[in-house]
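Bug report (template v2)

What were you trying to do?
Predict the complex of my protein with S-adenosylmethionine.

What happened?
Run completed; filing so the output is reviewed.

Input:
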Amino acid sequence: MSDDWYVEDYRGEFRVGLRVKEWLHRGESEYQKIDVFDSEVFGRVLALDGVLNASERAEFFYHEMLVHPAMVTAAAARRVLIIGGGDGGTAREVLRHPTVEEVVMVEIDGAVVDACRRHLGAIGSAWEDPRLELIIGDGAAYVAREELAPFDVILLDGTDPEGPGEVLYENYFYSQCRARLAPGGVFAIQSASPFLMREVFLRAQRRLRAVFADVRPYFGPAPLYCSGLWSWTHCSAGVDPLAADPARIEAIEPGCDYYNREIHRAAFAVPNFLRRELAGLG
Ligand code: SAM
């Protein structure tokens, strides 16, 4: 048994560690440190700049919750943009919706995609799907292009707001995403841990409210991430996240490990400690 541990350190105050069974990749790209290793509890794991990002066993919690609430509530779900998402899990979930015709994924770091295709094939099983167009580039620069045809759904699957992911947490970026949405479109983001990273979560809510008419955070477990409780946010101009189309949920539900109709409704319930803080945002 190896004595090697992968430890995520949160601001020098809190650590989460996994015993490394085997190192599969250790490298550094132009943008970040990229590690992939095998572990007993979570299977193969991707970590970026010291932060645990995705694991074979627990990725479904995160990817299903980022993707499906937006996909089943947007007026249409034909043309989808993913920003980030280099492990491929978000694209895989999007492509399970039978209405999807075109998915553009803009990931800044080709080295993440290469490492994940090589070692985390179980997560990104959609790379060969002809509906997927992968662009290696900055998602913020991409959405600033005015000539883009509108998207029904835009999903932000970025890293935390430090390093290359920082621009993806700014008002300007959010307003560019709003401008690229089709009528009835939905923009959904991962919005960090509302418990451990409360300021990051609240700042994102405040900024999103400045740009989108309807901003609805929702919650669920993410067992690999520091603190476990995670949040995502559903943003639109008048799309009620609780008015999901049951036929669209039915089409994907049997293939999900976490998401279903009941989870969809329950996830939008706001815990009291956050209700008060959200009311205080005005
Ligand atoms: N599930 C993960 C989490 O929240 O911990 C995030 C997964 S995904 C691997 C995040 C990806 O966003 C990374 O591959 C990173 O390279 C990419 N990324 C960061 N900044 C970006 C940007 N400005 N444009 C496009 N992709 C970006």
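What did the reviewer find?
The domain at 59-279 is CATH 3.40.50.150 (Rossmann fold). The chain has two domains: 5-55, 59-279.
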